[in-house]
Amino acid sequence: DAKTTQPTSMDCAEGRAANLPCNHSTISGNEYVYWYRQIHSQGPQYIIHGLKNNETNEMASLIITEDRKSSTLILPHATLRDTAVYYCIVRVDKIIFGKGTRLHILP
Amino acid sequence: EPEVTQTPSHQVTQMGQEVILRCVPISNHLYFYWYRQILGQKVEFLVSFYNNEISEKSEIFDDQFSVERPDGSNFTLKIRSTKLEDSAMYFCASRILGLAEQETQYFGPGTRLLVL
Question: What is the pLDDT of residues B23-36, one digit of tens each?
Fold first, then answer.
């Protein structure tokens, strides 16, 4: 299984862009990169996914490097409601949640 | 927007009792999951279910656990004889089965189970 590595925690000022990195150097050619988040004790929430092109939706943008070994989730204007644990995942038929990145939004 | 729903939101039970946690997956989804999260710990995969049978299960999913799709809409998790260590949030998830683009799992809000 492809493994992901994320920083344990990050801070971001409210209103600024939050950039969350993820390394997935063992990703295989047909595996998508998915991002989920979990706001305190709620169900994990799907954010975005991509294969090799950059993607954008109403929640976030996903930048995937050309070699696909890493990606960055961008929350363009972080708010206090974006405080959560963010998970980068490359296998989604059976999700194995790592520790993720705990994002703190500072007022 | 369609969503996964779960009932009850909270359940308190005595050790040794049976509990059934219920989930209504998104209507056109064909693959169903249960996960659990013990307080302060990671979300853990329990079981996946497709075409009326278990596709995969984790070591956690022992003989005390069972899943069922009793009708066209519900997906249930039964714990036959609850233990104190079964206290956790239980999340149901579902996904459509098809192209990789449609692999996204969508999670319900969870059932908080407390075993006394």
Answer: 999 998 999 999 99
